[in-house]
Design a protein that fits this description.
Layout: H1 3-12, H2 27-37, E1 42-46, H3 53-66, E2 68-73, H4 78-92, E3 95-100, E4 103-107, H5 132-136
Parallel strand pairs: 1-2
Antiparallel strand pairs: 2-4, 3-4
Length: 138
């Protein structure tokens, strides 16, 4: 790596501090999240249309459900993938865990599930769904 390239990198990223909308995480947290993300499959793909509002909405929903997600970017341009990662983190208040190849790993704490007075989650079904097979065996 040349001295000019190192100076450019320092100018581009003066500190490791988080951006305005980005969620700050420590080095230890980042290490643990990388290890946890190793076995995950990408849940969202950013294709030729780029980072549209519908893709951002899907990423937001996936972060609410899973917390830690992988995003596949089809583009071959590294700078474009870095811009996507920065925009996702700033817009959705998430933390960039890793950018490796065409995969972006993003983390945000899961939203807590609201519980009713009995302590059960509100969105769950009351009982398992009855299948036809269950009725035939009676």
């Amino acid at each position: 790596m040349t001295a000019d390239r190192i100076a450019q990198l320092i100018d581009d990223h003066p500190t490791e501090a988080a951006s305005v909308g980005e969620l700050p995480i420590s080095t230890g947290q980042r290490r643990e999240l990388k290890a946890e993300a190793h076995s995950l499959n990408p849940v969202v793909t950013i294709a030729d249309n780029g980072l549209s509002p519908s893709v951002l909405k899907e990423i937001d929903h996936s972060l609410n459900v899973h917390g830690l997600i992988k995003i596949r970017v089809v583009s071959d341009e590294r700078e474009l993938r870095e811009r996507y990662l920065a925009e996702i983190c700033n817009t959705l208040g998430a933390a960039a865990v890793q950018h490796i190849g065409k995969l972006l790993v993003v983390w945000r704490p899961k939203l807590e599930v609201k519980a009713d007075k009995s302590g059960k989650a509100v969105a769950r079904r009351k009982a398992p769904r009855q299948l036809k097979r269950n009725f035939q065996n009676r």
